[in-house]
TrEMBL record:
Assigned keywords, A-Z: Hydrolase, Membrane, Transmembrane, Transmembrane helix
PANTHER family xref list: AB HYDROLASE SUPERFAMILY PROTEIN C4A8.06C, KYNURENINE FORMAMIDASE
Source species of the chain: freshwater metagenome
GO MF annotations, alphabetized: hydrolase activity
InterPro entries: AB_hydrolase_fold (IPR029058), BD-FAE-like_dom (IPR049492), GDXG_lipolytic_enzyme (IPR050300)
Protein name: Unannotated protein
Amino acid sequence: MALVLFITGIAAALFTLLGISSPRRPYFLVPLTFFIAWLAGDLAMFHLVAQIIFTTVLVAQGAAAYTTGKVGLACMVASWVGLVLLLRRHRLAAAPLDAALATVLGPHEPSVAAEPVSLGTLLRPFVPSAKGVRIARDIVYGPHRRNRLDVFTPADGRTGCPVLLQIHGGAWIIGNKKQQAQPLMRHLARRGWVCVAINYRLSPRATFPEHLIDAKLALAWIREHIGEYGGDPSFLAVTGGSAGGHLSALVGLTANDPRFQPGFEHADTSVNACVPIYGVFDFLDRDGLHKGLMEPMLAKLVMKSRPGEATDAWHAASPLSQVRIDAPPFFIIQGGQDTLVWSEEARSFAEALGKVSTNAVAYAEIPFAQHAFDIMTTRRSVYAVRAITRFLDHARTGN
């Protein structure tokens, strides 16, 4: 038992340390270290309880009577301290979200942390409540196998609802509409929104801009059909995380661009607000952030070319190259400790867009938040959902 405590104690301490530090290098290990850090940070409460129970059982069986057991116990205690720190970090999300909203709504709004987050909510990280929500699944919006969408509507059947399009992430090569933004869409549906989550064609079979074309095809479908589900497309917003953040930003910046609407050039693909979350904004990597991790993947799987060979295509794929004076209101949200998409890129994009757009550009960088911080229900993600809701309500009503 002492050896078991020794091994698990060291493993627990290393696990928690990765959650605290979230190292950016070496590049080849980042996908693995990201995943560990994400699980450690966003599920810290559950890891803490499990480790305490496990350690208590081992100590009760005499595991701490030996030197190896004592070392393991010390490592476990260190892990617990680190997990408490990770939990405390969740509360830090409120300040930057409040500050970002203040630039748009003014300084007198209540904090996103003003309303307590219930323990019952936090105990369901993977399955947000569906109370008050109806979901219509796998509706066809286009000719391709992955052109399917889900529609989240208020359970009371109300009509005339504003509409949100959600585009999932997954590095343009994986992902599914059922996996992401579930807390946000269910929250909005309960508040009288209609939310549409789409699948789209994925690489390596798909080559950019086919991913974006599918997102715009979904917009065209929404314009034509969302009234059947109680939605009113006169207010239509778009959001997404990671690759979905990239695509949602492009949707917001390339309204009605015929290059990305083959066969439906006359469809209205404009949106009234855009909320990209930890998105990729510069395929050309002008700040030198991607070379070790992302650029080879983009060139081989997504773009099927190198930047020097097809510069126009890489510019077209970069939201940073598409900033425009008439961009819709943007709320850009980024994790400060994101090891897959670095915060420097989001800052550069927010600054560039803010210099030219006549509409609001709000930017919130969440301290210590890792990539995908909004997928599970945590205190941090609840605060983000509240902030996004306020931003969208303001974009819709002006209040």
